[in-house]
């Protein structure tokens, strides 16, 4: 019988057993497990603040960002097993927690529109599966960051903005994913400003002048300027301000698509 101190060994054994099964699994089953894991995580983050707090303990942001940055290669790599076990550990922390993020964000739009939670993969090409997985990953990140100042700071420290902005340059990505990336960055800037306000950091007079690494919003804007360049960064700020000025907070899809076109013209 295993003692309480054997938990670590049991976890390692579980991953080793999964690695054996990994080589026997079909690509379709791996795709299904990744989709299901992301769907579970998003639900946990929306329901429980304790789940969001667990991310830092298991390097959860790195695992989700790997899915976004590596694309189809991630499905063919046994590293997805670490994500699978992280999703299981985080979902277990949901039980017994009375905290709630009470999130009413738009993080489920892409999943419902693209069937991201479906485990069926027969007859669907890899590109379509990756589109669904990437949209789910972005939804999951939104759920983890919303109403969590500590996670926003951690996400920025883990080079999260770099990964998202880099994805924007990839014209081979599905248009829906690139649009979702822009929506995500818009939300991230807003949340970063709220994080600074919570920390008592005075906001910059203008986002055009907000690039100090001493503030969370400044750190985000600095990465945007580095990866987009001065002109496109300025255009993005204008896009953000246009959205922020709208009382209903509805994102202008046409303006976002036009911004993506300008990116492709400069690439």
Question: Could you give a short description of this structure?
Answer:
69% of the residues lie in helices and 0% in strands.
- Structural class computed from helices and strand pairing: mainly alpha
N- and C-termini, Cα separation: 60 Å
The residue-averaged pLDDT reads: 76
Low-confidence stretches: 1-8, 96-123
Shape: globular
Largest sheet: none
Query: How many separate helices?
Result: 14
Task: Tell me the series of helices and strands, N- to C-terminal.
Answer: HHHHHHHHHHHHHH
Strand tally: 0
Beta-strand percent range? under 5%
Radius of gyration: 19 Å
- Count the domains: 2
Helix content: 55-70%
Polypeptide structure, described:
- This protein is an all-alpha fold and 267 residues long.
- The chain has 2 domains: 10-147, no CATH class; 154-267, no CATH class.
- The chain has 14 helices and no strands.
- Helix 12 packs across helix 13.
- The longest helix has 24 residues, at 175-198.
- Mean pLDDT is 76; it is low at 1-8 and 96-123.
Give descriptors for this structure.
267 residues, mainly alpha, 2 domains, 14 helices, 0% strand
Secondary-structure map:
Layout: H1 7-24, H2 27-47, H3 49-54, H4 60-70, H5 72-75, H6 80-94, H7 109-114, H8 126-145, H9 149-157, H10 160-168, H11 175-198, H12 216-228, H13 230-244, H14 253-266
């Amino acid at each position: 019988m295993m003692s309480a101190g054997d938990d670590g060994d049991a976890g390692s054994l579980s991953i080793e057993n999964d690695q054996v099964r990994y080589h026997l699994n079909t690509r379709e089953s791996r795709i299904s497990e990744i989709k299901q894991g992301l769907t579970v995580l998003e639900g946990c983050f929306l329901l429980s603040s304790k789940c969001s707090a667990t991310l830092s303990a298991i390097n959860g942001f790195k695992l989700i960002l790997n899915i976004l940055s590596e694309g189809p290669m991630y499905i063919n790599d046994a590293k997805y097993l670490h994500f699978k076990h992280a999703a299981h550990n985080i979902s277990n922390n949901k039980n017994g927690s009375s905290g709630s993020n009470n999130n009413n964000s738009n993080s489920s739009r892409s999943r419902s529109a693209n069937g991201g939670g479906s485990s069926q993969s027969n007859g669907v090409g890899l590109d379509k599966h990756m589109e669904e997985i990437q949209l789910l990953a972005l939804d999951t990140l939104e759920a983890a960051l919303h109403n969590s100042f500590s996670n926003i700071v951690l996400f920025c420290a883990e080079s999260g903005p770099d990964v998202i902005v880099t994805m924007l340059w990839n014209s081979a990505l599905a248009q829906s994913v690139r649009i979702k990336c822009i929506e995500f960055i818009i939300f991230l800037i807003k949340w970063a400003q709220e994080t600074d306000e919570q920390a008592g950091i005075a906001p910059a007079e203008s986002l055009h002048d907000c690039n100090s690494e001493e503030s969370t919003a400044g750190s985000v804007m600095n990465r945007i300027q580095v990866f987009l360049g001065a002109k496109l960064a300025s255009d993005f700020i204008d896009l953000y301000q246009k959205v922020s000025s709208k009382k209903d907070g509805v994102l202008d899809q046409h303006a976002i698509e036009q911004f993506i076109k300008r990116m492709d013209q400069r690439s």
